[in-house]
Amino acid sequence: MNGQKVTDDRGRTDDADGADGADRTGGQDRTEDPSPRGGATSVTVPARAPWSTVIPAGGHLTITDLHGNQAVDFLVYDAHDTAVRYSAPDTVQAQGNLFLTTGSVLLSNEHTPLMTVVADTCGRHDTIGGACSKESNTLRYGHHTWSQHACVDNFLSEGARYGLGKRDLVSNVNWYMNVPVEEDGTLGIVDGISAPGLEVELRAETDVLVLVSNCPQINNPCNGFDPTPVLMTVRTPGRAGDTVGAPSGEAVR
To answer: Can you list the positions of beta strands (E) in 56-188?
Structure first.
């Protein structure tokens, strides 16, 4: 693969000794858990905002739906070669199920494990709904939505900090989004099954770069028509004092 090591927009490269779980998202204010659990550090990602971090192998990421029914769009890459990235087809084929829950392994396009879902109090997460964009919004909901912020915008702005561009965006995971599929293949984005305080926890199987868009969609029920903050908690092995980061930009209002 002709990918690259993760280098943030301050020129820092994460190599085998540098993938330390520290976030690479610049100097905006962040809300941290004043009493981190088990050496973990937490950050609240505002509604509509992007976020990213590098997690070393063996580290854990917990995503908490603070207010309920908030979709969290998610991409993951090998931190040492970003051409190796999450593959929805590989993941779905390997587990024989469209939905993610405890035990699901997020596989790469090389069919290698990137992260494993080790705990899930929601029960089902989407792999096929994709990320909202200005183009899809105008097609589905009308041209008056063109100016609305979208997940693709978040992925592009956050990914650019690591040298990633549009060609590096692939079909993503949507934590907490409810996209049921009927026997005839019909699917749709419907009311969520999440609730305040539900969590999904993932373990990194290799050093990974995680990109998140806290979904800004207001035209369908994926966020209950009212986007809200989510909590990210990173626990890295042997690094109790590591800091994870704030969103790279303020929430779009």
So the answer is: 60-65, 72-78, 81-85, 105-107, 113-120, 173-175
